[in-house]
Amino acid sequence: MAKCSKTTFMILCLAVRIFMVFLGEYLDSKSDGFKYTDTDYNVFSDAATHVYNGESPYKRHTYRYTPLAAYMVLVNNLIHPVCGKLLFSLCDGLMTLILWRIFETINAAHQESTYLYVAFWTFNPLTVNLSTRGSNDNIISLLVFIGIYYLLKRQYVLAGVFYGLSVHFKIYPIIYSIALYLFIDADFKAIKAGRKWEAFKAAIISRNKVVFTLVSAGTFLGLTYYFYTVYGYEFLYETYLYHLERKDHRHNFSVYFYMIYQQFDDPSSATLALASFLPQWGIVAIASVFLYYDLFLCLFVQTTAFVMFNKVITAQYFLWYVTLLPMVLVNNKLTNEHRSLGVALLIAFVVLDAAWCRQSYRFEFLGEHSFSEIQTVNYLWFAYTCFTLRSVLVCAKVTITKMIEDTPAKLKS
Questions:
Q1: In this structure, how many other beta carbons lie within 10 angstroms of the beta carbon of residue 387?
Q2: Are 74 and 45 in contact (CB under 8 A)?
Q3: Sign (positive/negative) of CA torsion 355, 359, 364, 366?
Q4: pTM, 2 dp
């Protein structure tokens, strides 16, 4: 039955996405205004065309990604312009398999409900929409989860390779580094006995920690050095350094948006851009130290805090923590004792998203100045995210994340 369920999920996962890809192509061909295809996909495609012609992908204005993103979309030049979206959709299918395998371990006591948690991600309108519109953020999530999968299997070399690759692909997964490091070879017996400080001190260094650190850092630095030799400083700046000083006056979900917009040409706005890192990294560090043994809860808290305090927030950023949410809900009262609260939070998400899109539509398509209204919704988004994060933490049944064993016998023991 499990095999049948996995097969069914894979077929449905790919069928839904293929349908949406070609529906999007049809809608784009009939519309002169709103386009289903994400702007980023056009950026990837243009950059890939430059590579195809033997040029730098950074000749495409606003291309601020690793060259690998452009290389992947070379299929558009070699086969058909829609193939990049189909490739991203295939990555969603691989993600479904990885999630299912992890859930077989962390949800071992209730295997009958595994499909529900996997479905939460696989058929989530957000995840379907992003990959079929041509956003590649699902690839970063896939690389992170493959890294976690191998880490839970104690295969630290492979875990390091995929984690290092994920950080190279987009720098934000570096926020997980401390938590992943502390989780490896942690003294779970001491943690269960309530001796958490003793366990923390014992988790400072071990052979496996060193292996994971060296491999992940080596993968990241190796790729970075290679592309630096190919594309020079432009690669370093556009892919990494730009994001440290990034100021975006275009409308987005960030609580800082309107302030940055109003002070965009003021030198103090650069200070604001850098200062926004303080609450982000403060919460990331605290979660790493106090929650590392409940790995998915820790990563969810880190990601949510990182996104909510970010200078720029687009819909793709929601995917970063929504991908982790099913893993958290396995051991959370929001799925049973406080289910009504969970449903209310879901409804609030949809309502706020609709409210933001309404104001964004007024600005982009009707030409109305709705920045004040957009920022009002942003404040509500920030308050909502704070309350949601608090609710998840209050309702969480903090536990130790299980390792993935190779045999059912070991898993049961």
A1: 13
A2: no
A3: positive
A4: 0.92
